[in-house]
Amino acid sequence: MQKLLREIRACKVCEEHLALGPRPIVRADPSARLLIIGQAPGTKVHASGIPWDDASGNRLREWMGIDKAGFYAPEVAIVPMGLCYPGKGKSGDLPPRPECAPLWHKALLEKMPIIELTLLIGTYAQNQYLADPEPTLTATVRNYARWLPGYLPLPHPSPRNNIWLRKNPWFEAEVLSMLKARVEELKL
Questions:
Q1: For the chain, which has fewer Cβ within 10 Å, the N-terminal or C-terminal residue?
Q2: Environment class of residue 94 by beta-carbon count within 10 Å: exposed (0-12), middle (13-18) or buried (19+)?
Q3: Is the pLDDT of residue 92 over 90?
């Protein structure tokens, strides 16, 4: 695993497309039982080198009912769809670079054989890992039970999604209570 992580952190495959340059951000360990697959690091995470080290990460930890120590424990792996900050777009960050997941995910997952739950945050992760996602993120998350116990689709915890959260009160009442219970069962 350590050799693979060194290779990943030295990756420059899509360097020419990255405004801030390559800085692959990933956390993985053979003892991981929970895997978080999100979109791609933002500028704050690119600067710190720590995954989910921003307001979205604070909300995600709140959703999970876990503190930073548990979140960054070896039992929690964090492997985004794009490992580097992809740059700024018209209405937020650009999509994750398409090279990352095909290049690195399979090798990482093979070295983490005891994953019990994978959180799929956003449509990029859901479209990659769910066999038959619903046509919209809302429908996919609403029908989360289809993919349990292995996968749990979630919206992005970004403050930009406050409107979505207000429009979908079932998410907090149903999905987040189940997520906290599952995280507690994993004893992270």
A1: N
A2: middle
A3: no
Task: Report the predicted TM-score, pTM, of the whole model to 2 decimal places.
Answer: 0.97
Residue with tokens 């960054």: 72
* pLDDT tens-place string over residues 94-114: 999 999 999 999 999 999 999
Domain boundaries of the chain, sorted by first residue: 2-186
- Cβ atoms of 72 and 129 closer than 8 Å: no
Helices 177-186 and 55-64, packing angle to 10 deg = 80
Q: How far is 141 from 18, CA to CA, in rounded Å?
A: 31
CB 62 within 8 A of CB 19: no
First to last CA, the chain: 21
Confidence of residue 91 (pLDDT cuts 50, 70, 90): confident
CATH of 2-186, one of 3.40.470.10, 2.60.40.2230, 3.40.1000.70, 3.40.120.10: 3.40.470.10
Q: How far apart are CA 73 and CA 172, in angstroms?
A: 25
